[in-house]
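dumping this here so i dont lose it
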């Protein structure tokens, strides 16, 4: 029995993970569930999955969670706060940690799981963008394994030889990340000037949380994924390409020096990547309907429009600058996306805020977690000052 901690259980990835777990009660048990502040949703999940521990990140809500669980006759330990999250990620109640918290808030628990040698299923891409080298160090020290859940990286993982291969020695020429293009594919900058959060969150192929949905609309999601691929697979920026593929059936490709290109295909449903990561190196049924290529029609591919979707170009720029530039990019983006979702920043200004913060805070070498978290805070401060000036 594999005991799984689902951190971010009330989110979109959390729901898909619990759906796969529920299909295989003989293999997986959800032993730890966490949420930020949605006590009702977390209590309901505890009623269904009967974990040993429930963690609510907001300490003010611990009493309410305990009361709801007691009233429902659910007996499990209750804890709160970010220290409880890191303790749960590294503690004895789980063998596997699904890192499905959104944003930099997931860094500490992801690092703790890596350091403790857990089997780490990484969905929380912001934590590897922010702390890439530190996370890899923690993984080496802990001796555990990281299996990517982000669909593109899971696809690449499936198309590479086993382990974490040396790409050059394995004959890999290029990693090609596919992108759906988001809800605004084909639009011009003028078209995008007045788009609303609801329009940005209406993704044509994937159903996801609001932050990643906005990132998909700006193509920052793909930018974060380029940086994620660099760290996960040891690929230099020049060996990573992005290809827009609106049908979202080809999840990414690996090109080898002999001209072979391997791709992983499937219906756009995160349960495929999650089931692969949970069961790897075995396979389990995921609840995803079989791919019917005869019925899917033509598959299209095109180059991304880097002039309209500036965020992707900025992510490549941050990756090439190195050091903590990706952390600065990520922090500025999180603040800008929050403001866009709150209706106080226009869509196109997300890239402007990110670019201005990258210019204001030139890249520094990453030393340790403390200095990285301080730089993350500095970048958030710079982004907030820009937002105030813009209002
Ligand atoms: P979501 O917004 O639906 O869920 C986020 C979860 O994190 C919730 O359970 C929430 O309670 C928790 N959370 C939020 N802020 C927190 C905080 N400060 N402290 C502790 N917990 C907090 O997001 P999602 O779409 O499930 O995405 C989760 C992560 O997975 C993101 O990093 C995203 O980029 C990545 N990802 C998502 C998808 C997808 O299809 N949704 C695909 C690939 C990667
Ligand atoms: Mg992805």
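and the seq i came up w/
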């Amino acid at each position: 029995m594999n005991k799984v901690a689902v951190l971010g259980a009330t989110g979109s990835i959390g729901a898909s993970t619990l759906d796969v777990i529920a299909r295989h009660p003989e293999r997986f048990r959800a032993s730890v569930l966490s949420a930020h502040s949605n006590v009702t949703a977390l209590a309901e999940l505890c009623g269904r999955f009967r974990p040993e521990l429930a963690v609510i990140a907001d300490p003010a809500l611990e009493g309410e969670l305990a009361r709801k669980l007691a009233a429902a006759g659910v007996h499990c330990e209750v804890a709160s706060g970010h220290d409880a999250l890191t303790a749960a990620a590294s503690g004895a109640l789980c063998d596997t940690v699904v890192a499905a918290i959104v944003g930099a808030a997931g860094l500490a628990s992801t690092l703790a799981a890596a350091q403790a040698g857990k089997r780490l299923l990484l969905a929380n891409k912001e934590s590897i963008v922010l702390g890439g080298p530190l996370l890899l160090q923690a993984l080496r020290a802990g001796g555990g394994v990281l299996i990517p859940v982000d669909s593109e990286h899971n696809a690449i993982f499936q198309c590479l030889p086993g382990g974490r291969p040396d790409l050059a020695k394995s004959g890999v020429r290029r990693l090609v990340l596919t992108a759906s293009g988001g809800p605004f594919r084909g639009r011009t900058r003028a078209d995008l000037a007045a788009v609303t959060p609801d329009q940005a969150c209406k993704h044509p192929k994937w159903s996801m949380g609001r932050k990643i949905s906005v990132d998909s609309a700006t193509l920052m999601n793909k930018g974060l994924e380029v940086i994620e691929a660099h760290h996960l697979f040891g690929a230099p920026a020049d060996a990573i390409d992005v290809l827009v593929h609106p049908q979202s059936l080809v999840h990414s490709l690996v090109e080898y020096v002999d001209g072979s290109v391997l791709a992983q295909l499937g219906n756009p449903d995160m349960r495929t990547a999650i089931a692969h990561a949970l069961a790897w190196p075995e396979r389990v049924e995921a609840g995803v309907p079989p791919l019917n290529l005869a019925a899917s029609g033509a598959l299209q591919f095109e180059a991304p429009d880097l002039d309209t979707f500036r965020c992707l170009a900025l992510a490549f720029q941050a990756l090439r600058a190195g050091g903590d530039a990706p952390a600065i990019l990520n922090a500025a983006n999180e603040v800008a996306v929050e403001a866009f979702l709150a209706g106080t920043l226009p869509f196109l200004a997300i890239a402007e805020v990110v670019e201005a913060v990258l210019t204001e805070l030139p890249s520094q070498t990453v030393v340790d977690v403390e200095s990285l978290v301080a730089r993350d805070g500095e970048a958030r401060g710079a982004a907030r000052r820009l937002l105030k000036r813009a209002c």
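The chain has a mean pLDDT of 96.
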